Give the backbone structure.
Amino acid sequence: MGKGFDTLDVKILEHLGRYGPRNVSSIARKLGVPVETTRKKIKRLISQFFITFHANVYHTKIGLRKAFVFADAFPGYEEMLLKCLKANDFWLYVGRYYSGCEGCYGVYAIPKDHALEFEEFVQQLEEAEVARNAQLFWSTCLHTVNLTDNWVDPESKNWSFHWTEWLEEIPSEGTELPYTLVEPRDYPVEADYIDILILAKLEVNSAVSFRDVARILKMTPEAVSYHYKNHILKQGLLEKSQVFFLRFDEAISDFFVFIFRFPDGDSMAKFALSLLDKPFVYSLGKIIGENALIAHLFFPRMEFRRFVYSLSELIRRGLLQTYEYVIEDFSLRSAQTISYEYFKEGSWIYDHDKHVKNLENVIENAALRKLKV
């Protein structure tokens, strides 16, 4: 974890993930530590580990369906493919990956009544010959996995990876998934325009003050506080506050996106629950209509090999069916908030023709640049 990292640091980070960065006084009380000491610790951790705080929106309750798109790029057109993924206004995250070849992937939040149009948009990537093997997976919202003190050695102040113990832990887990990984029956819009604006600001920085949000949105702090407490919190529009930082040395570690498939729902649930306190996990989602999970993971390279050996053992034991993964190039990524500018009068505006035109323009501009060269 780095020089100066101690047990209290871990506990503070764990509580920040559990209660959010707005509740420093409450966190201090729960830990039995003076508030000023807690604030100083948090300030040092932010500086040392480049920690950021992000509110993860529970898209299901604002009428949006989560989608993952993976597409292999034609050699030489990787950057164009990345731009093509952004041609749809409802992207949340796009990045480059490599596996058997170079490719790109995107995470989207699509208005519930426009799933078929989005599927057509993804098909356009192959039809326009900018991508091969384009795959679309509809997913539940992602369950955020923040840091806990599990697998931290308090004496060495380093990680201790207990793969053998993890293999034995999985069969003893329960079979009830957290609500975030349960397939929704519907996608109601339980937010108004002001709620959506506030959510977008909290996505960027969940520690931002209501006063700063009010100034940006040209509202009073009291109005922002009212919407946050009486709409956003009461309606469950937030999944969790994510405490994001690189938990391992980036120089010898890699980010992965995994898809795990299971023989049945119980095996899937046990596996998912076993990951909710592990330091290499950042988020989990369930693929709609399948006994399958999609996960963002981060490993030191040596531990990644041990993780794969563990997966092989799970397959031999019949607890896992198969898995696949790509390695993310974390230096080539972009993120944006929910597309609040397309939320009008309680519903989302989704312009499929515009998205297709945007895609065509990206391809045409790339062709023109090639001719000039």
About this structure: The chain has a mean pLDDT of 92. The longest helix spans residues 352-372. Residues 192-234 form a domain with the Arc Repressor Mutant, subunit A fold (CATH 1.10.10).
